[in-house]
């Protein structure tokens, strides 16, 4: 039914009458409009449902039929990795990655880029490098690949699996790590410069519960947010057996509370409890507004890297498994996804002035606000932004000095982002509890 302004006003009355007539039936019945594919079911709450795709399987009609019907996000399983895209130094090959991207876009799907830097699947020439020459080569790789795909990638796994397993909570040793501990932030900055529209993610495994490894990553993300290193999302691979950890949801939530999106990026689950575990993982994502989507690591069991473990949603012949139905039902029943609204207030736009705009990600009881400060026709040497919180409280902020946490809250530049060239811009952010509606930021040059 198309809702007009007149019919909207009748909806509550009709719904109440219907509820009275049907009584308890309404409570127990599945939604009449339940979606019948994974992608459509996820889209109802603004999320996606994706899969890893191997270019070599795109000539398999059963595979392609399921891919086109069920999924609305695609990750190249191997074809955008370093060894595939830069097999020789300075010689780039995008044939496999482009094939997957074009197939996905032709089918109306978006694409997650995987992965710009990873200690595995480095090409041979890079494996034998170290120090400043490797640093230069790896940043060039990030820049070249992100530039090739500029504007076409929803989110990049900028860095994959850089943390050590076990109890240290520290970085994994690798030739990338030995170029200096700042290699991860250097990669994120290079990716942002090359493709400002792509969300930039850190991606890892064995990070599905609260443990020393996930806490090490949590601390890195918190530090990046505090220092203004561009990071938008954290990927949780979720290669699981039998169960998700009992604190899976709590772990996702603590990352979301840092002001990043969380995404389940390589889900596959082996073992006899498979359907229940898939349901639990899907429910965990649906319960967190900042959880924007789920990707499974392959389509049929025979497509999986976990040979013989049958960890996926379709059998080798392409039939839906009980785990498929568990996921579909959980997606159809799921809670609201992220809502982003943007409001802009301009003032002092002339010489010496600035404007501020805010992009707000609001969920039930909290929000993240990203504020962009843009210089007028003269360069800024410093700025001050005032935003009004009538029903919310700021709990943390980054890339600015803050005064106050409710009512009129003032943010001023920090040492590294006060100078903004004429017409240029810089960003800071804050998060809080309650509502971030009506912030109406105003900017003053100082
Ligand atoms: O391309 C060569 C081919 O030329 C050769 O004939 C063939 C012989 O074995 O190997 C082919 O390369 C293989 C490649 O997959 C493509 O099929 C590699 O040997 C094999 O190691 C590689 O495995 C991939 C693995 O990453 C590499 O570590 C898996 O397909 C892929 O599913 C897996 O994905 C990773 C994620 O990227 C990161 N997280 C973990 C996940 C599972 O390991």
TrEMBL record:
Signal peptide: which range, if any? 1-34
Q: Which residues form the active site?
A: 266 (nucleophile)
Question: What Gene Ontology molecular-function terms does this entry list?
Answer: endo-1,4-beta-xylanase activity; polysaccharide binding
Positions of the GH10 domain: 32-330
The cross-references to Gene3D superfamilies, in alphabetical order and at most eight, read:
2.60.40.290, Glycosidases
For whether the record's keyword set contains Coiled coil, the answer is no
Domain CBM2: start-end pairs: 347-446
- Which terms are listed as keywords in the entry? Carbohydrate metabolism, Glycosidase, Hydrolase, Polysaccharide degradation, Signal, Xylan degradation
- GO BP terms in the entry: xylan catabolic process
What positions belong to coiled-coil segments?
none
Question: Highest taxon of the source?
Answer: Bacteria
- What is this enzyme's catalytic activity, as reactions? Endohydrolysis of (1->4)-beta-D-xylosidic linkages in xylans
Q: What is its EC number?
A: 3.2.1.8
For this protein, the record's SUPFAM superfamilies field holds: (Trans)glycosidases (SSF51445), Carbohydrate-binding domain (SSF49384)
Family annotation (InterPro entries): CBD2 (IPR001919), CBM2/CBM3_carb-bd_dom_sf (IPR008965), CBM2_carb-bd_dom_sf (IPR012291), GH (IPR017853), GH10 (IPR044846), GH10_AS (IPR031158), GH10_dom (IPR001000)
What family does this belong to?
Answer: Belongs to the glycosyl hydrolase 10 (cellulase F) family.
Instruction: Show the PANTHER family listed in the entry.
Output: BETA-XYLANASE, GLYCOSYL HYDROLASE
State what protein this is by name. Answer: Beta-xylanase
């Amino acid at each position: 039914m198309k809702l007009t302004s007149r019919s909207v006003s009748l909806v509550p009355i009709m719904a109440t009458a219907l509820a009275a007539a049907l009584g308890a039936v309404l409570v127990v019945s599945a939604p009449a409009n339940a979606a019948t594919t994974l992608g459509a079911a996820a889209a109802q709450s603004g999320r996606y449902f994706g899969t890893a795709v191997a270019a070599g399987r795109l000539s398999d009609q059963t595979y392609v039929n399921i891919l086109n019907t069920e999924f609305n996000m695609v990750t190249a399983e191997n074809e955008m990795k370093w060894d595939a895209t830069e097999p020789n130094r300075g010689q780039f090959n995008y044939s496999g990655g482009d094939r997957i991207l074009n197939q996905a876009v032709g089918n109306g799907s978006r694409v997650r880029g995987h992965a710009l830097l990873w200690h595995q699947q480095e090409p041979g020439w890079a494996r034998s490098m170290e120090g400043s020459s490797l640093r230069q080569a790896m940043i060039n790789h990030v820049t070249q690949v992100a530039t090739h795909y500029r504007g076409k990638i929803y989110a990049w796994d900028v860095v994959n699996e850089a943390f050590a397993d076990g109890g240290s909570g520290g970085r994994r040793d690798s030739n990338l790590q030995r170029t200096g501990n700042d290699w991860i932030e250097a990669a994120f900055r290079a990716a942002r410069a090359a493709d400002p529209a792509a969300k930039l993610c850190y991606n890892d495994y064995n990070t599905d519960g609260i443990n020393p490894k996930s806490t090490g990553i949590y601390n890195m993300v918190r530090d990046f947010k505090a220092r203004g290193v561009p990071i938008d999302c954290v990927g949780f691979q979720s290669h699981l057996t039998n169960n998700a950890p009992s604190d899976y949801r709590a772990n996702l939530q603590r990352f979301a509370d840092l002001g990043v999106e969380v995404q389940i990026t390589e889900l596959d689950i082996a073992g006899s409890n498979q359907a229940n575990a898939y349901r639990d993982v899907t429910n965990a994502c649906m319960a967190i507004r900042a959880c924007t989507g789920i990707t499974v690591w392959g389509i049929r069991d025979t497509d999986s890297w976990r040979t013989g473990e049958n960890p996926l949603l379709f059998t080798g012949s392409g039939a839906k498994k009980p785990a498929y139905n568990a996921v579909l039902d959980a997606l159809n029943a799921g809670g609201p996804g992220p809502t982003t609204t943007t409001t802009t207030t301009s003032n002092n736009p002339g010489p010496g002035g600035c404007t501020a705009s805010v992009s707000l990600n609001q969920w039930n009881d909290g929000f993240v606000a990203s504020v962009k400060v843009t210089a007028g026709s003269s360069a800024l040497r410093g700025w001050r932004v005032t935003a009004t919180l009538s029903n919310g409280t700021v709990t943390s902020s980054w890339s600015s000095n803050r005064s106050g946490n409710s009512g009129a809250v003032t943010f001023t530049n920090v040492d590294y982002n006060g100078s903004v060239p004429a017409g240029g811009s810089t960003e800071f952010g804050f998060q809080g509890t309650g509502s971030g509606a009506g912030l109406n930021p105003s900017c003053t040059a100082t």
